[in-house]
Design a protein that fits this description.
The chain is 84% helix and 0% strand. The chain is mainly α.
Length: 265
């Protein structure tokens, strides 16, 4: 009841979805944070080894741009692959588990239990099982990205309007027709929420794998720079990593908008 009461009031206070609200406000806040960071570091005379100023990071990027792009392509490529596999696997799993009450009650608690496990603690196990190569990093990234998609989609499929399902049975719609035209549209917002979470989790999974077992990628670059005390290079790698994550999230967001137009059209 409280959720129903809160959501409309939040939406009522939202600004119009124009360029100023969507891009201008976050951009202005980001510039403010960078400016405050620059001023505080200079005024407090913080050593660059502890916290470099944004200008120090910007000074490092041109000289290491080629190296950064190489590592970014490695991390980005594996992140996209992990993201695509996790979305497909999570969707199929949700559909299978939601197809039968018995199947759902049998397997859902186990899926939820694994989701609640601190998965970062399991990362070394993937290296033990699959070796030091790219397979272990990709598998681990899929592993941590899969659950948001599966759980969100299952939630959406389970919350289909009961009246709509009764209407489908009354008009003699098949199970497939009910799924495509009723259950799937209801689950779409939940599914896309899981997809957007998976977009960020896939990058995190690849980077964690690169910390453990890799000789390339942004995770490796950040770890190596930190071991040599090149803090500005660490922040440069983090900045590029943020761009990779934002690009993947933008893909998920664009797909959500396109799917919404398709179902409404």
């Amino acid at each position: 009841m409280s959720e129903i009461a809160v959501v409309p009031s939040v939406r009522h206070r939202r600004l119009p979805r124009g360029a100023g609200a969507t891009i201008g406000l976050p951009l202005a806040f980001g510039i403010f944070v960078l400016a405050a960071w620059q001023v505080l570091v200079r005024l407090r005379h913080v050593p660059q080894l502890i916290l470099p100023a944004p200008s120090d990071v910007a000074h490092v990027i041109p000289g290491t741009f080629g190296i950064l792009m190489h590592h970014a392509l490695v991390t980005g490529g594996y992140s996209v692959a992990a993201f695509a596999i996790a979305v497909a696997l999570g969707f199929v799993t949700a559909v299978v588990l939601s197809s039968s009450a018995i199947v759902f009650e049998t397997f859902y608690p186990h899926v939820l239990l694994i989701q609640l496990t601190p998965k970062i603690a399991l990362a070394p196990l993937f290296t033990f099982w699959l070796g030091l190569g790219a397979t272990s990093r990709l598998t681990y990234a899929v592993f941590i990205s899969f659950f948001p998609v599966a759980l969100a989609t299952m939630t959406g499929l389970s919350r289909t309007d009961a009246n709509a399902l009764r209407l489908c049975r009354a008009v003699g719609a098949s199970a497939w027709q009910t799924f495509v035209w009723v259950r799937l549209p209801y689950a779409l917002p939940y599914f896309m929420t899981g997809v957007k979470v998976a977009a960020t989790m896939s990058v995190i999974g690849i980077v964690i794998g690169e910390f453990i077992s890799s000789k390339e990628g942004l995770g490796y670059y950040i770890l190596l720079s930190g071991s040599f005390g090149r803090t500005a290079n660490v922040f440069a790698g983090l900045a590029v990593l943020c761009v990779v994550g934002l690009l993947l999230y933008a893909v998920a967001f664009a797909a959500e908008r396109r799917l919404q137009r398709w179902w409404r059209g």
